[in-house]
Automatic annotation (TrEMBL):
It comes from the Bacteria. InterPro entries: ATPase_NBD, ROK, WH-like_DNA-bd_sf, WH_DNA-bd_sf. Belongs to the ROK (NagC/XylR) family. This is ROK family transcriptional regulator. It comes from Agromyces tropicus.
Length: 402
């Protein structure tokens, strides 16, 4: 059955499933209140979800004199999603329910540059799926640091992984028999933020990640901006200096080449703060201990991030910014440079723009990838292609061969 809806409506459908999965049965009126949606819209969305077999009507709720409210619950076959985060040296997994809550997680070493990387990745994914409790797996969401042509096809180009034109989606579908959706890892985090986080109440926001790399997920009118080739949001490769250090992408002077994890460590070693072999944890420890030179490395990084991000804000006009990633463990040291640079480079009427710093664990990347699966059944843009149809069928309990 064809679904005609806006992307915002699509996210609201997923939000209904997530809310019922998290809190149990609810009435239409309760859903309208907690999701800040009109009763008329809730009525239409629920009607569609009932027709799709994703919701069921339960017993009537007690009434205080008015018409008894019919309670709504998830269809028992709602299932779970598997999220996979792929980076150069390891892969992280999560299994989540439709409410986004993590059921289990794991991490395995992985060499993205090995000649057998596809076979190794397949082996690890199969092992994680097999270790589950037998619940229906709706699909596999994979987040990668790089550009993806379309989530439904999953062809990856990644400087960090050393991959060019890797047909990851097709390889994983063939090997696992599951629907597979592949996306840039920061875009996946933006989907998760839209579905489960602060983005539920805003149609326009910016997710920025700092850590090994620097990236952004741009949400405009409720949808993640992918643009021509799926590469929107690569702010780590904004050129900030003509004669800067070489970036992993092959160009000189990119933002990431100055403030990515490897760049901070390199700067600290060159300034004698760290000995050879010491890494980002040692730099953070030095800053925590009050080492002035270590604090200056972070302050300078924060300053450059703030100045660059002000330009991005002027370009996309978000309602708020969320900062995520491994680098946020040291945000207290980034902030003294970031805040004045960011605010002073914004137009006056934007200087109060909220910037939220969220706590971080490694499995957060994988949770973002799992959110791709949970949002895909209502993908109005069609970027998930046939994989969206297969995941939607699994939501409704009709397991279809992929």
């Amino acid at each position: 059955m064809a679904i005609h809806s806006t992307t915002r409506t699509d996210v609201n459908r997923s939000a209904i499933l997530a809310r019922l999965g998290a809190d149990g049965p609810a009435s239409r009126a309760e859903l309208a209140r907690v999701l800040s949606l009109s009763p008329a819209l809730i009525t239409q969305l629920v009607k569609d979800l009932l027709a799709d077999g994703l919701l069921v009507e339960l017993e009537q709720a007690p009434s205080n004199g008015g018409r008894p409210a019919r309670m709504l619950g998830l269809a028992t076959s709602a299932g779970r999603a598997i999220g996979v985060k792929v980076v150069a040296d390891h892969v992280a997994f999560v299994e989540v329910g439709v409410d986004g809550r993590v059921v289990r997680s794991a991490s395995e070493p992985f060499d993205a540059t090995a000649s057998t990387f596809i076979a190794e990745l397949v082996e690890r994914i199969r092992g994680f799926v097999a270790a589950g409790d037998g619940a229906t797996v709706l699909g596999l969401g994979v987040g990668v640091p790089g550009s993806v042509d379309r989530p439904g096809s999953g062809v990856v180009d990644s400087a960090q992984l050393g991959w060019t034109g890797v047909e990851l989606g097709e390889a994983l579908r063939r090997a696992t028999g599951l629907p597979v959706v592949v996306e840039n890892n920061v875009n996946a985090l933006a989907v998760a933020e839209r579905l489960f986080g602060l983005g539920r109440s805003h149609d326009n926001f910016l997710v920025v990640t700092i850590g090994t790399g620097v990236g952004a997920g741009i949400v405009v009118d409720g949808a993640v901006l992918r643009a021509a080739s799926g590469g929107a949001g690569e702010i780590g490769h904004v050129p900030v200096a003509d004669d800067g250090p070489r970036c992993s992408c092959g160009n000189d002077g990119c933002l990431e080449a100055f403030i990515g994890e490897a760049a901070l460590v390199r700067e600290a070693r060159e300034r004698g703060i760290l000995p050879d072999g010491a890494g980002i944890d040692a730099l953070l420890a030095a800053a925590d201990a009050g080492d002035g030179a270590a604090l200056e490395v972070y302050r300078a990084a924060g300053h450059l991030l703030g100045r660059t991000l002000a330009g991005i804000v002027h370009t996309v006009d978000p309602a708020f910014v969320v900062v995520l990633g491994e680098g946020t463990a040291g945000w207290r040291h980034w902030a003294p440079g970031f805040e004045p640079a960011f605010r002073s480079h914004l137009l006056r009427h934007r200087r109060s723009l909220p910037v939220e710093i969220e706590t971080w664990t490694d499995e957060s990347w994988a949770q973002g990838a799992a959110a791709l699966v949970l949002a895909t059944p209502f993908d109005a843009a069609g970027s998930a292609g046939d994989q969206g149809r297969l995941i939607r069928a699994r939501f409704a309990g009709q397991v279809v061969s992929s």
